[in-house]
């Protein structure tokens, strides 16, 4: 069983684990907090690094993996760092696409990938997690809002930074604020937007960095094969908490959109126009958080993965690390020679090592 208690944006790790386990012949149910609705405005461009690609290959049936690659976006040639005058001050080249055993870099639309990953799964929508109980027979009983109860051999928390499952399993685990906040959205990639956007944002990933802690990532999503996903420019306006009063009066996406444009009003006018041309339904805000390292714990038939355990600041690798979690846990379960708890313990030991190493790297990168 996979416990899915998602917030606004649902990640790929839970459904990916479920696909791998179902492919191995195991019975899995995916529980989602939210109702089954089409969240078209909730999807953004995300980067899937090589370890994420390898996880997709390991867990998905070949036809779903091929669909994920076919619906991915144009990768672009690199990552560019710009100053507030939009001059490139540093650039990192992205290696060419590779389909070999080392994995490839992918750019995917979050909603499109999620639809692919949910294909064929038993998904129970509108089931917010409330609590669990460990049973005497070594299984776990899970209680959901509305009175639904389910017993399982294993409950896996893939419910994100604010995981309620982690809160019960590891009440001392800490997620801390970094003192930054983000307003993010997407703008349809119409001709006017192509004219306004820095060239680097149309050829990979770019980030405008100011000297006062403000920054603005920009990246286009352009589908490779015209799969029905509207091409768009993803944008984020990040700022230190001292400027957060600028968004306190915003009550909806349109208000946040205007607040984001005002936060960068002294930067080139094209950037503010890009924000204002965006779809207000796609605009949201959040704060930037990171997880404190967690020491090993006694394994029980409840475990965690992705942001539910190693939340990290956004530097482009969190999705791949979460996917690595899913593939590793799947492999440990399917290939186990001892008990299920032995497999879970092996997963947790390895995941804590590389997961919090990735958290540390993300902090250095930020």
TrEMBL record:
Gene3D superfamilies linked to this entry: FAD/NAD(P)-binding domain
Keyword entries, A-Z: FAD, Flavoprotein, Monooxygenase, Oxidoreductase
GO function term, MF aspect, one: monooxygenase activity
Family annotation (InterPro entries): FAD-bd, FAD/NAD-bd_sf
Residue ranges occupied by any FAD-binding domain in the UniProt entry: 10-335
Record keyword Flavoprotein present: yes
Record protein name field: FAD-binding domain-containing protein
Naturally occurring in which organism (per UniProt): Saccharopolyspora elongata
């Amino acid at each position: 069983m996979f416990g899915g208690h998602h917030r606004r944006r649902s990640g790929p790790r839970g459904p990916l684990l479920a696909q791998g386990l179902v492919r191995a012949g195991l019975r899995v149910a995916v529980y989602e907090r939210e109702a089954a609705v089409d969240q078209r405005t909730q999807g953004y461009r995300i980067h899937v690094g090589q370890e994420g690609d390898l996880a997709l290959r390991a867990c998905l049936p070949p036809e779903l993996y091929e669909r994920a690659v076919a619906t991915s976006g144009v990768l672009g040639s690199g990552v560019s760092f710009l100053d507030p005058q939009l001059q490139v001050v540093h650039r990192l080249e992205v290696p060419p696409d590779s389909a070999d055993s080392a994995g490839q870099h992918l750019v995917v639309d979050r909603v499109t990938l999620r639809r692919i990953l949910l294909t064929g799964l038993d998904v129970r929508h509108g089931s917010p997690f409330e609590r669990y109980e460990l049973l005497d027979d070594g299984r776990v009983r899970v209680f959901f809002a509305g009175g639904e109860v389910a017993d399982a051999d294993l409950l896996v928390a893939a419910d994100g930074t604010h995981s309620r499952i982690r809160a019960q399993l590891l009440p001392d685990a800490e997620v801390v604020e970094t003192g930054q906040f983000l307003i993010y959205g997407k703008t349809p990639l119409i001709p006017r937007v192509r004219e306004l956007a820095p060239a680097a944002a149309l050829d990979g990933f770019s980030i405008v960095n100011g000297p006062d802690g403000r920054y603005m990532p920009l990246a286009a999503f352009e589908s490779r094969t015209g799969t029905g996903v509207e091409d768009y420019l993803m944008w984020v306006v990040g700022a230190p908490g001292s400027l957060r009063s600028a968004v306190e009066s915003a009550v909806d996406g349109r208000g946040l959109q205007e607040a984001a444009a005002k936060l960068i009003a002294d930067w080139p006018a094209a950037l503010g126009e890009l924000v204002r041309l965006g779809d207000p339904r796609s605009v949201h805000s959040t704060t930037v958080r990171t997880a404190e390292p967690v020491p090993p714990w006694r394994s029980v038939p409840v475990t965690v993965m992705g942001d539910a355990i190693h939340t990290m600041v956004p530097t482009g690798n969190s999705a791949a690390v979460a996917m690595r979690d899913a593939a590793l846990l799947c492999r440990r379960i399917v290939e186990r020679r001892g008990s299920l708890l032995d497999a879970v313990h092996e997963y947790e030991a390895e995941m804590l090592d590389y997961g919090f190493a990735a958290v540390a790297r993300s902090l250095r990168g930020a």
